[in-house]
Specification:
By secondary structure, the chain is α+β, with helices and mostly antiparallel strands. Helix content is 22%, strand content 47%. It has a single domain, classed as Porin (Beta Barrel), CATH 2.40.160.20.
Length: 184
Protein backbone atom coordinates (compact mmCIF):
# COMPACT_ATOMS: atom_id res chain seq x y z
CA UNK A 1 0.00 0.00 0.00
CA UNK A 2 2.86 2.39 0.81
CA UNK A 3 4.42 1.82 -2.62
CA UNK A 4 1.17 2.75 -4.32
CA UNK A 5 0.91 5.97 -2.32
CA UNK A 6 4.53 6.89 -3.15
CA UNK A 7 3.99 6.33 -6.88
CA UNK A 8 0.79 8.38 -6.96
CA UNK A 9 2.32 11.25 -4.97
CA UNK A 10 5.45 11.17 -7.16
CA UNK A 11 3.27 11.42 -10.27
CA UNK A 12 1.30 14.33 -8.84
CA UNK A 13 4.45 16.19 -7.80
CA UNK A 14 6.05 15.55 -11.18
CA UNK A 15 3.08 17.15 -12.93
CA UNK A 16 3.46 20.43 -11.04
CA UNK A 17 5.70 23.28 -12.28
CA UNK A 18 9.42 22.64 -11.74
CA UNK A 19 10.41 26.12 -10.49
CA UNK A 20 9.25 25.50 -6.93
CA UNK A 21 10.70 23.18 -4.30
CA UNK A 22 8.92 19.91 -3.47
CA UNK A 23 7.46 21.49 -0.34
CA UNK A 24 6.14 24.44 -2.33
CA UNK A 25 4.64 22.07 -4.89
CA UNK A 26 2.89 20.06 -2.20
CA UNK A 27 1.49 23.23 -0.61
CA UNK A 28 0.39 24.53 -4.03
CA UNK A 29 -1.36 21.27 -4.87
CA UNK A 30 -3.02 21.07 -1.41
CA UNK A 31 -4.25 24.67 -1.78
CA UNK A 32 -5.63 23.85 -5.23
CA UNK A 33 -7.58 20.85 -3.90
CA UNK A 34 -8.91 22.83 -0.91
CA UNK A 35 -10.10 25.65 -3.21
CA UNK A 36 -11.70 23.15 -5.59
CA UNK A 37 -13.58 21.52 -2.72
CA UNK A 38 -14.79 24.96 -1.59
CA UNK A 39 -16.02 25.61 -5.14
CA UNK A 40 -17.84 22.26 -5.19
CA UNK A 41 -19.58 23.11 -1.92
CA UNK A 42 -20.70 26.52 -3.23
CA UNK A 43 -21.91 25.55 -6.71
CA UNK A 44 -22.83 21.93 -7.21
CA UNK A 45 -25.22 19.32 -8.46
CA UNK A 46 -26.11 16.09 -6.68
CA UNK A 47 -24.79 12.70 -7.77
CA UNK A 48 -25.93 9.16 -7.04
CA UNK A 49 -23.30 6.41 -7.35
CA UNK A 50 -23.94 2.73 -8.10
CA UNK A 51 -20.91 0.40 -7.95
CA UNK A 52 -21.49 -2.53 -10.30
CA UNK A 53 -18.28 -4.36 -11.23
CA UNK A 54 -14.91 -5.20 -9.65
CA UNK A 55 -12.76 -6.96 -12.24
CA UNK A 56 -9.79 -8.82 -10.75
CA UNK A 57 -6.96 -8.75 -13.27
CA UNK A 58 -6.66 -12.32 -14.54
CA UNK A 59 -2.92 -11.86 -15.21
CA UNK A 60 -2.24 -11.31 -11.49
CA UNK A 61 -4.66 -13.72 -9.78
CA UNK A 62 -4.66 -17.50 -9.64
CA UNK A 63 -7.88 -19.44 -10.35
CA UNK A 64 -8.55 -20.19 -6.65
CA UNK A 65 -8.70 -16.49 -5.81
CA UNK A 66 -10.80 -15.61 -8.87
CA UNK A 67 -13.30 -18.33 -8.02
CA UNK A 68 -13.80 -17.13 -4.44
CA UNK A 69 -13.88 -13.35 -5.04
CA UNK A 70 -17.04 -11.30 -5.42
CA UNK A 71 -16.91 -9.24 -8.63
CA UNK A 72 -20.33 -7.62 -8.18
CA UNK A 73 -19.82 -4.97 -5.50
CA UNK A 74 -23.41 -3.81 -5.34
CA UNK A 75 -23.91 -0.79 -3.16
CA UNK A 76 -24.70 2.90 -3.39
CA UNK A 77 -23.24 6.30 -2.85
CA UNK A 78 -24.01 9.98 -2.82
CA UNK A 79 -22.00 13.06 -3.68
CA UNK A 80 -21.90 16.60 -4.94
CA UNK A 81 -19.93 17.79 -7.94
CA UNK A 82 -19.45 20.51 -10.53
CA UNK A 83 -17.85 21.26 -13.89
CA UNK A 84 -15.57 24.18 -14.62
CA UNK A 85 -15.48 26.11 -17.92
CA UNK A 86 -13.09 23.56 -19.47
CA UNK A 87 -15.51 20.63 -18.78
CA UNK A 88 -13.32 19.37 -15.93
CA UNK A 89 -15.44 17.51 -13.38
CA UNK A 90 -14.70 17.59 -9.64
CA UNK A 91 -16.64 15.91 -6.88
CA UNK A 92 -16.74 14.83 -3.28
CA UNK A 93 -18.57 11.63 -2.48
CA UNK A 94 -19.13 8.61 -0.26
CA UNK A 95 -19.87 5.01 -1.32
CA UNK A 96 -20.61 1.77 0.50
CA UNK A 97 -20.49 -1.60 -1.27
CA UNK A 98 -19.61 -5.30 -0.95
CA UNK A 99 -15.86 -5.82 -1.33
CA UNK A 100 -14.13 -8.78 -3.00
CA UNK A 101 -14.71 -10.92 0.10
CA UNK A 102 -18.39 -9.84 0.34
CA UNK A 103 -17.78 -7.63 3.40
CA UNK A 104 -18.89 -4.03 3.66
CA UNK A 105 -16.37 -1.49 2.32
CA UNK A 106 -16.71 2.28 2.35
CA UNK A 107 -14.88 4.94 0.38
CA UNK A 108 -15.02 8.68 1.06
CA UNK A 109 -13.22 10.84 -1.44
CA UNK A 110 -12.50 13.74 -3.71
CA UNK A 111 -12.16 13.21 -7.45
CA UNK A 112 -11.10 15.27 -10.45
CA UNK A 113 -11.47 14.23 -14.09
CA UNK A 114 -10.32 16.19 -17.12
CA UNK A 115 -12.73 15.62 -20.00
CA UNK A 116 -12.83 15.91 -23.75
CA UNK A 117 -16.35 16.66 -25.00
CA UNK A 118 -18.05 15.55 -28.21
CA UNK A 119 -21.36 16.02 -29.92
CA UNK A 120 -23.41 18.97 -31.05
CA UNK A 121 -24.13 20.13 -27.49
CA UNK A 122 -21.04 18.62 -25.81
CA UNK A 123 -23.30 15.85 -24.49
CA UNK A 124 -20.56 13.17 -24.65
CA UNK A 125 -17.58 13.29 -22.30
CA UNK A 126 -14.53 11.06 -22.00
CA UNK A 127 -11.76 11.72 -19.55
CA UNK A 128 -9.14 10.72 -17.03
CA UNK A 129 -8.09 11.95 -13.62
CA UNK A 130 -7.69 10.76 -10.06
CA UNK A 131 -9.55 10.17 -6.83
CA UNK A 132 -8.14 10.71 -3.35
CA UNK A 133 -9.89 9.25 -0.38
CA UNK A 134 -10.15 6.97 2.59
CA UNK A 135 -11.39 3.41 2.45
CA UNK A 136 -12.49 1.21 5.33
CA UNK A 137 -12.28 -2.57 4.97
CA UNK A 138 -12.92 -5.62 7.13
CA UNK A 139 -9.31 -6.89 6.98
CA UNK A 140 -8.07 -3.52 8.33
CA UNK A 141 -10.60 -3.55 11.22
CA UNK A 142 -12.42 -0.69 9.42
CA UNK A 143 -9.60 1.72 10.25
CA UNK A 144 -9.57 4.42 7.52
CA UNK A 145 -6.76 3.82 5.01
CA UNK A 146 -5.76 6.43 2.39
CA UNK A 147 -6.29 5.22 -1.16
CA UNK A 148 -5.32 7.52 -4.07
CA UNK A 149 -6.34 5.99 -7.41
CA UNK A 150 -6.32 6.77 -11.13
CA UNK A 151 -9.78 7.41 -12.58
CA UNK A 152 -11.26 7.18 -16.09
CA UNK A 153 -14.76 7.76 -17.32
CA UNK A 154 -17.19 8.20 -20.18
CA UNK A 155 -20.55 9.92 -20.01
CA UNK A 156 -23.58 11.02 -21.93
CA UNK A 157 -25.52 13.99 -20.57
CA UNK A 158 -26.14 13.15 -16.86
CA UNK A 159 -25.20 9.44 -16.96
CA UNK A 160 -21.55 8.47 -16.47
CA UNK A 161 -19.59 5.23 -16.17
CA UNK A 162 -16.36 5.69 -14.24
CA UNK A 163 -13.66 3.29 -13.12
CA UNK A 164 -10.71 3.40 -10.75
CA UNK A 165 -7.83 0.95 -10.84
CA UNK A 166 -6.44 -0.39 -7.58
CA UNK A 167 -2.83 -1.43 -8.28
CA UNK A 168 -1.33 -4.31 -6.34
CA UNK A 169 0.76 -7.45 -6.25
CA UNK A 170 0.05 -11.12 -7.03
CA UNK A 171 -3.38 -12.10 -5.66
CA UNK A 172 -3.89 -8.71 -4.00
CA UNK A 173 -5.09 -5.42 -5.49
CA UNK A 174 -5.03 -5.18 -9.29
CA UNK A 175 -8.77 -4.52 -9.41
CA UNK A 176 -10.68 -2.36 -11.86
CA UNK A 177 -13.59 -0.93 -9.86
CA UNK A 178 -16.44 0.35 -12.06
CA UNK A 179 -19.43 2.42 -10.98
CA UNK A 180 -22.21 4.44 -12.51
CA UNK A 181 -22.79 8.08 -11.61
CA UNK A 182 -26.07 9.88 -12.26
CA UNK A 183 -26.14 13.69 -11.98
CA UNK A 184 -29.22 15.57 -10.77
Amino acid sequence: MKKILYYVLFGLFYALPTQASWTDKLIEWKDFVVEDIKDIRCVHRYDVYVPFYAWHNRLTYDRDHIDKYNEHPWGAGFGISHYNNEHTWSGIYAMAFKDSNSYLETYFGYARQWNKTFGEHNDWKIGAGYTLGLTQRHEYAYIPVPLPLPLVGVGYKQLHIQAAYVPGIKNDGNVLFAFGRLEF
